[in-house]
Amino acid sequence: xxxxxxxxxxxxxxxxxxxxxxxxxxxxxxxxxxxxxxxxxxxxxxxxxxxxxxxxxxxxxxxxxxxxxxxxxxxxxxxxxxxxxxxxxxxxxxxxxxxx
Length: 100
Known about the structure:
Layout (H helix, E strand, L loop, with lengths): L3 H7 L2 H5 L1 H27 L10 H24 L10 H5 L6
């Protein structure tokens, strides 16, 4: 699920061109990565219980670390332009038509 399914889905041009389907593949990868990390880490800390249980702190840790990452990303994004400034070829590149 981490490699084969997303790989086969992303080979299709239609999946990559639609934002909704690409978002679903991305969300699936994020969820599967969280499940994988949980599967590897939690059983080592839960010796007395027979099965691992999801705690509120597990969810809050993911949200907290993700929030720090998104905040840092946005902070860095505000400092640097996304488009090249003062490039004489840039205006022509925006007018280029790609064939479908």
